[in-house]
Amino acid sequence: MKQYLLSVHMVEGQAPPPQEEIQPRYDSVEVFNKELQDRGAWVFAGGLYPPETATVVRLRDGEVLTTDGPFAETKEQLGGFWVVEAEDLDGALVWAAKGSRACGAPVEVRPFQELPED
Amino acid sequence: MLFDVDEIFRREYGRSVATLVRSFGDIDVAEEAVQEAFLVAVERWPVTGLPPNPGGWITTTARNRAIDRLRREASRHDRHAQATLLHDSQQPPEPVGPVTDDRLRLIFTCCHPSLAPGAQVALTLRLLGGLQTPEIARAFLVPEPTMAQRLVRAKRKISAAGIPYRIPEDAELPDRLRAVLAVIYLVFNEGYSASVGDALGRDDLCAEAIRLGRLLAELMPDEPEVGGLLALMLLTHSRRHARSAPDGSLVLLPDQDRSRWDRALVEEGQARVRTSLRRNLPGPYQIQAAINAVHSDASNASETDWAQILELYDQLMESAPTPVVGLNRAVALAEVVGPTEALEVIDGLDLAGYHLFHAARADLLQRLGRSADAVSAYGAALAIATNDTERAFLEQRRQAAVEGGPGLRP
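Structure tokens for the assembled complex are given below, as produced in the milestone run.
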């Protein structure tokens, strides 16, 4: 089994969904999460607060430098993610399609590196 | 030497690599082993003579070499080598279930939608077609290191992302097969109308695409669009010798010397169109093949059954309503109804960036006696056409319009 990150992409400045759509979306994500758990594909998942809540920490000349985020000044930002287990990419893509339908946003699929060899 | 190792390489490379990819689950291991086996063959076959089954000999030799090498590496605690050997030992000696060729699995891997189209094409030509990296780079007019890097990246993505080696399940098969057909047709078109430079066609790529099309038709005999694509390529390729004059200039379909069409390809193409259409599951490739079959039926241009072609374009517009199909449909409309109506349709198409849009407009304007408008439309086509042969053709037509002549076709 391989692990994949399914990340949900939000476009900054895009109007949020109308109020009456938000609750059904939460509900459908919950149904999706339940399916992941029941099928043994669930590893971890979570939704994130918007990018302006981010803080960036880096080392500069050995000193810790803390600045306000986000790290990447792009319009597309991470909104949330799932980590799932699947047999191969096609398996992960099936989950991604369901996840995208559930949350109403594009989902990017990226494989995790295998545990480092000793 | 009584045999041609290069020819055997091209014919057997894909089959051997595909079998070893299934065994070892690793494209690099498979490719290295098969290349090594061919090096052994080049030394040994001139002495021992050609084995009865050269492809089988290559696969067995490659497999043994790969296992030897992986065992050496595994004994040095190389985890990847250990895992690759384990993968091999877990594979059944013969695949279970319906007999499927390993090459079919590999085609779907190479054309997986998570790979960029350029990478799909390069991988398919390399792994299934047995083309070497420099050949692929030359065919696609990119520097060799660029092509080498594209292949390395694509292979790395297959292994890192876990792109599977298997024939897609029924639910995803139509989409995934469309991607495979698109790759093969792209290879064909790249050969047929090189968009840059002075060579009108690169026959090698067309022949390669047809070879891949035949392979796919053999592996998936029940898919009518596979037969449709093969028929389309065969019928198009049958006209390759008539498509240019002795001086290298372009000759359009109505002006071609039809005795120079390759009869064997025409007949095979027409037979394949008929077989595919009999399944009554028409698709864009079958319809385009059928349109070409109608052209192939006419012993000269004036006998072309344009009404039937227009009907087929109407059908094509339903399944593939693209502006380019609309443009070709308008050309048929001009023959059936008249240039005025066709021009009206063409002017409604959003294709200003496509040189053949302006060329088709120019031709209709010229036929309507509007020479000045035709001259400027040919100018618009020339401003964006890149193929030297096509440019020479457009230049000649523009000159004819400037001289106020009736054009080559009244």
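Chain B touches chain A through eleven residues (CB under 8 Å). The two ends of chain B are 58 Å apart (CA to CA). Further analysis is deferred to the final report.
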